[in-house]
Amino acid sequence: MRDFLKSAFGRSKPKQLRILPQDVTIEIGQGQTLLEAALANGIAYPHDCTVGTCASCKTRLKQGRVREATPFGYTLSKDELDAGYILACQAFPKDELTVVEIDSSAGDLMPAEKYTANIIATEPLTHDILRVTVQTDRAVSYAAGQYANLRKAGGGRARSYSFANAPQRKGRTLLEFYIRKVPGGEFTESLFGGELKGVSLEMEAPLGTFHLRAGDSHMVCIAGGSGLAPLVSILEHARGNRIKRDCTLLFGARTQADLYQLDAIGSIASNWQGDFRFIPVLSDEPLDSDWKGARGLVTDHIAPGFCEGGEGYLCGPPLMIDAAIASLAKHGIPLEKVFYDKFTDSRDR
Ligand code: FES
């Protein structure tokens, strides 16, 4: 019977995927996700984790319906879902033609390579954040905003940390990361205990698609906790290249003791080409302290005055990012102008 049906109706036509803005159409193989089909056809489709947690493959679905391998809502905000975004790595096509639009600027990013990295210095920035400097076996090229996966040589789970210093044209061998201690976390407990100094790490980099887009609109940068690292890298890089844009940097921390790199931010501000506004916001600072600055959630301080016509650059925990996306949209920055790196402190991707 099965053979009869096959011969009577033939094999079903392969499903097609059309990718914009490149306007490339490819076939989607049996059982392939949209991302798998694109990569199998040599298309530089933005991606990283491939398991639905990093949002690097976030894509706007323009036509067709897809089945979710894991619910997109675990990673994408309600605003993103309402705007028609999907995760290509978790999407199987349902219709004959699926049309998607990707962020084409991600295609210009360098492919990841493997390096050996030795921790040569650690310096406390706060009671639970270390600045960690590693030296690599050769120069690493990356875009400001991207991150690296680090793991102990010979095994262990990789941890993801954003580059905190600006890239250099020919790559860098000395790289800085801001690493928050995760209580009970094997990697950071060893790091904070000094046991990893001089130890060889395996590093894979560059990863992620978070980077500064070309343009001259107001940059609204929002960082939470150790999420300051990629924004310092982006801002240092922009300052070094004398990029002329107005910028507002909102930095959310719990108390004054959790603020760090204020000198580095001050130096960026004083050499910035354009207006630069820095707004630190404290959520748990004692009311009777000498703090005269902003209080509450960092996202409560997103204001229309610096949003209109701007672009959002966000790095922090998922709740902060989701709240920031909603608030930026309310104040005039649409989703397609918001770029982010969403992480948990353990940076499990
Ligand atoms: S590559 Fe799809 S969510 Fe990470």
Automatic annotation (TrEMBL):
Residues 112-213 form the FAD-binding FR-type domain. Keywords: 2Fe-2S, Iron, Iron-sulfur, Metal-binding, Monooxygenase, Oxidoreductase. Its cofactor is FAD. Residues 15-106 form the 2Fe-2S ferredoxin-type domain. InterPro entries: 2Fe-2S_ferredoxin-like_sf, 2Fe-2S_ferredoxin-type, 2Fe2S_fd_BS, Beta-grasp_dom_sf, Cbr1-like_FAD-bd_dom, FAD-bd_FR_type, FNR_nucleotide-bd, MRET. Pfam families: FAD_binding_6, Fer2, NAD_binding_1. CDD domains: fer2, oxygenase_e_transfer_subunit. It is an enzyme of class 1 (oxidoreductase). One of its GO terms (molecular function) is monooxygenase activity. Its EC number is 1.14.15.-. This is Xylene monooxygenase electron transfer component. It comes from Paraburkholderia xenovorans (strain LB400).
